[in-house]
Amino acid sequence: MKSDYSYSVSVVYNNYPWPENPSEKQVKAVEAAGQKVLDVRAQFPDSSLADLYDPLTMPPALVKAHQELDRAVDLCYRPQAFPSEAKRMEFLFELYEKYTAGLFEKEKPKKARKKAAVAD
């Protein structure tokens, strides 16, 4: 297997840190919005994902469904919208750092041992 990025049903939600304490209502809103994305995709059975997600021809209903999903997910993290994509990424990286703090111990550099003098 190559070392390229790999995405699958079993790991896609592990690619970013999930919010710390989403409410049941927030989780259900994300599930409903995710299902809506799938339902809108199903309206285009003859289109491939490449067709559906072409930025020039993406169906407006799919764009809207994704915007609603993004909004539902964002509200799980904080009550106000992120002002930019960069701020969202910054927030997610900070949360990842918080989640992983202490998981990886730093190795202490090994001191080079002095070789014993060899008698001739």
Taking the alpha carbons of the first and last residues, their distance comes to 54 Å
Mean pLDDT: 85
Helix share bin: 40-55%
Please state the overall shape, judged from the principal axes of the Cα atoms. Answer: elongated
What is the tally of helical segments?
Answer: 4
Largest sheet: none
How much of the residues is beta strand, in percent? under 5%
Number of extended strands: 0
Low-confidence stretches: none
In terms of structural class, how would the helical and strand content be classed? mainly alpha
Radius of gyration, in angstroms, nearest whole number = 23 Å
What letter string, H or E per element, gives the SSE order?
HHHH
Give structural notes.
It is built from four helices and no strands. It is mostly helical and 120 residues long. Helix 1 runs antiparallel to helix 3 (60-77). The chain is elongated. The relative contact order is 0.11.
Could you give a quick summary of the protein structure above?
This protein is an all-alpha fold and 120 residues long. The protein has four helices and no strands.
List the SSEs and their pairings.
Elements: H1 24-42, H2 49-52, H3 60-77, H4 85-100
Please tag this protein with its features.
4 helices; single chain; MmeI-like C-terminal domain-containing protein; MmeI_C; 48% helix; 120 residues
